[in-house]
Amino acid sequence: MSAPTTGAVVRVPFAELQALLQAILQRHGCSAAVAAVLAHNCASAQRDGAHSHGVFRIPGYVSTLASGWVDGQAEPVVSDVASGYVRVDARGGFAQPALAAARALLVAKARAAGIAVLAIHNSHHFAALWPDVEPFAEEGLVALSVVNSMTCVVPHGARKPLFGTNPIAFAAPCAGLDPIVFDMATSAMAHGDVQIAARAGQRLPEGMGVDASGQPTTDPQAILEGGALLPFGGHKGSALSMMVELLAAALTGGHFSWEFDWSGHPGAKTPWTGQLLIVIDPSKAEGERFAQRSRELVEQMQAVGLNRMPGERRYREREVAGREGVALSEQEWVGLQALVG
Ligand SMILES: NC(=O)C1=CN([C@@H]2O[C@H](COP(=O)(O)OP(=O)(O)OC[C@H]3O[C@@H](n4cnc5c(N)ncnc54)[C@H](OP(=O)(O)O)[C@@H]3O)[C@@H](O)[C@H]2O)C=CC1
Ligand SMILES: O=C(O)C1=NCCCC1
């Protein structure tokens, strides 16, 4: 989640940024419907200071669309496969429009049965994962999502990369407070943050990755050029990353992180994989008590000295952006103007 480090800061109203991103995405090959979903997602990440997946990613969307690797016009096909199961074929398009297409059915099933699963395959996810779960918690539901990405992480104890950076995001309602949300790569660092550090000429902390010969390195460029990331927390993060491969790819019918070949599409950046969401209606078990119990948990964590909840930094940045506008570096702002042409 590195912040931009160069240039003066420009503040832009959220709606203006979203409209600009939508215009860029449409100009470079997305349908209006797809561009609207991605623009909202990306502008939200920038607003919340989630810089590794904010406007930093727009040139990647543009080059990927130009390469023909992703279908920016794809219309997802939603299948109602069982009482608690929805399947979506994203048809080679982005995962977020696939989620949007299935969302109402997924929520209806979760409310009827207490739990429902959404399995998306044939999809590209190039964004932060919290925007996919947080809205469910705002409606009183608990949501968990996983997505796999592209081979760049060495499984614990192995010699070569295999897994993606494979994030896990979770959201739950909390009485009187913002939803409890966490969203984390299962690698020691998100790939986007390695790219940002490389661009800024910064070293990484120790323990993030290895170079092309498998030796530990703090040089982000060495990780990007033939090296690899490590899982967070050794064998534990590695096991979670393995779980993400199983849930997001094997269970959905999507590709494992190493199974797609984008070498024929220079400029392609978006992993062609799968995504799983599990949505639970806590009222089925706990009535109205779940959100209150969440609140009790937060209060107990604070009572023992916790001074920052996961998600809290984003909510703080969101509040500031609401008052002052979304922050971008001047360089990013100028770059976006150039892309709208
Ligand atoms: N689409 C894809 O394939 C991929 C996407 N990603 C995305 O990259 C993004 C960044 O991931 P990552 O770098 O692992 O995230 P971070 O390590 O920055 O943060 C992980 C979580 O921990 C919370 N957190 C951070 N610091 C603290 C602290 N000191 N105390 C309490 N909580 C804390 C964060 O909350 P807060 O948000 O408030 O800082 C967040 O919920 C994610 O949004 C992820 O979805 C990553 C890999 C692949
Ligand atoms: O930051 C990462 O790690 C990734 N983000 C978008 C998709 C590829 C991996």
Automatic annotation (TrEMBL):
<dbReference type="InterPro" id="IPR003767">
    <property type="entry name" value="Malate/L-lactate_DH-like"/>
</dbReference>
<keyword id="KW-0521">NADP</keyword>
<dbReference type="InterPro" id="IPR043144">
    <property type="entry name" value="Mal/L-sulf/L-lact_DH-like_ah"/>
</dbReference>
<dbReference type="InterPro" id="IPR043143">
    <property type="entry name" value="Mal/L-sulf/L-lact_DH-like_NADP"/>
</dbReference>
<dbReference type="InterPro" id="IPR036111">
    <property type="entry name" value="Mal/L-sulfo/L-lacto_DH-like_sf"/>
</dbReference>
<comment type="similarity">
    <text>Belongs to the LDH2/MDH2 oxidoreductase family.</text>
</comment>
<dbReference type="GO" id="GO:0050241">
    <property type="term" value="F:pyrroline-2-carboxylate reductase activity"/>
</dbReference>
<dbReference type="GO" id="GO:0042803">
    <property type="term" value="F:protein homodimerization activity"/>
</dbReference>
<keyword id="KW-0560">Oxidoreductase</keyword>
<protein>
    <recommendedName>
        <fullName>Delta(1)-pyrroline-2-carboxylate/Delta(1)-piperideine-2-carboxylate reductase</fullName>
        <ecNumber>1.5.1.21</ecNumber>
    </recommendedName>
</protein>
<dbReference type="GO" id="GO:0047125">
    <property type="term" value="F:delta1-piperideine-2-carboxylate reductase activity"/>
</dbReference>
<dbReference type="GO" id="GO:0006560">
    <property type="term" value="P:proline metabolic process"/>
</dbReference>
<comment type="subunit">
    <text>Homodimer.</text>
</comment>
<dbReference type="Pfam" id="PF02615">
    <property type="entry name" value="Ldh_2"/>
</dbReference>
